[in-house]
């Protein structure tokens, strides 16, 4: 998987880049068909009354529909963490959509186990 990282209104340090690469790189475990991840990190504006607001957005290029997630937080590291969690959830949903039989097998297994245990089904 190719990871492209860009910054908007925000100075990207090597520590932030490596942290983001590590977190987004973990998504390859969940779905091997990810082609590219376009990650943009930045700050919305520096004059919020409640402090600085950072954002992290990512576009994952995968076969079929691309996934896009945007997260806004008070801390850039927290935004990256939340982005990773949301992308994991979206990838899991996308895998079920691409292979609908996968979910049905799971349901059949649960029903079979329940039938053996109680004899209801």
Uncertain stretches = none
Order of strands, main sheet, comes to 1-2-3-4
- The termini sit apart by 45 Å
Q: Describe the main β-sheet briefly.
A: 4 strands, mixed
Mean pLDDT: 83
Give the overall form. elongated
Rg for CA atoms? 19 Å
CATH homology superfamily name: Ribosome hibernation promotion factor-like
CATH secondary-structure class: Alpha Beta
| Assembly state of the chains shown | single chain
Helix content: 40-55%
The strand count comes to 4
Class by alpha and beta content: alpha+beta
CATH fold title: Double Stranded RNA Binding Domain
Q: Give the percentage of residues in beta strands.
A: 15-25%
Q: How many domains comprise the coordinates?
A: 1
Summarize the structure.
This protein is an alpha+beta fold and 121 residues long. Helices cover 48% and strands 25% of the residues. It has one domain: Ribosome hibernation promotion factor-like (Double Stranded RNA Binding Domain).
Structure overview:
The protein is elongated, with a radius of gyration of 19 Å. The mean pLDDT is 83. The longest helix is centred in the last third of the chain and has 23 residues. 48% of the residues lie in helices and 25% in strands. It has four helices and four strands, in the order βααβββαα. Strands 1-2-3-4 form a four-stranded mixed β-sheet, covered by helices on one side. It has one domain: Ribosome hibernation promotion factor-like (Double Stranded RNA Binding Domain). A hairpin with a 5-residue loop joins strand 3 and strand 4. The protein is of the alpha+beta class.
